[in-house]
Design brief:
Strand content: 15-25%
Oligomer: single chain
Order of helices and strands: EHHEEEHEH
């Protein structure tokens, strides 16, 4: 799911490589940045999911009885170094990672 101004989203999607554009399921009009409390790496081949950031937030939601937690899902290729790059991005942007 992508969020942003409709015109910018359309232009952005046209420029995405197919393997990145394929998992995008839709767009939402919006113009502000919202930080992700939970970031999940999803293996594009197997569908396996790993919590890259936000394990504590997931536990808090479970303790509160929530069945779902909003998350940013990032498709990765585990055969490449994409998981390590996501961990590095979490470290830079969030100060840590949960991998």
């Amino acid at each position: 799911m992508l969020a942003g101004e409709p015109g910018n989203l359309a232009e952005f999607r046209r420029g995405l490589p197919p393997r990145i554009a394929e998992p995008v399921i839709g767009t939402v009009a919006g113009a502000r940045h919202e930080a992700a409390d939970v970031i999940v790496a999803r293996d594009a081949k197997t569908g396996e999911c790993l919590v890259a950031f936000g394990r504590e937030r997931i536990q808090q939601a479970r303790d509160a009885g929530a069945e779902e937690v909003p998350a940013l899902v990032v498709p990765i290729n585990r055969g490449a170094d994409e998981l390590e790059r996501l961990a590095a991005a979490c470290l830079v942007l969030k100060g840590r990672h949960d991998l």
